Amino acid sequence: MDPPRRGSFGSSLLVALGWYVTVFAAVFVGSAGVPTNPNQDCSVIFACLTPQEGFVLAAIVGAPVLAAMLLTTLAITALLARRVPSPALAGTLSVSITVGLAVVAGGFWQAAR
């Protein structure tokens, strides 16, 4: 009898990173396709940013959150790749668990404010 087949850590991590790239590309394309309001009031700070400038600003501000999510995904992928035989399933589960943890942490942060 053969031992159960384990998924590859590298392949699982590539699947997880692929999910991040897919989501960020979808958000960028979706926000770039929205037309701007011609009667926009630019008296408020950051009110007249182009979608590309807004995306860059969000990337700069969200970089610590993204770094924490990537490190969490790395740790969870390392644990799941040993137990789940499919790299696609292990990578998808690790991203799903990380997003769930980020939502819970954001909820606690909002409640503490």
TrEMBL record:
Domain of life of the organism in this record?
A: Bacteria
The protein's UniProt keywords, in alphabetical order, are: Membrane, Transmembrane, Transmembrane helix
Q: Which residues cross the membrane?
A: 12-34, 54-81, 88-109
Protein name, please?
Uncharacterized protein
Q: Which organism is it from?
A: Micromonospora haikouensis
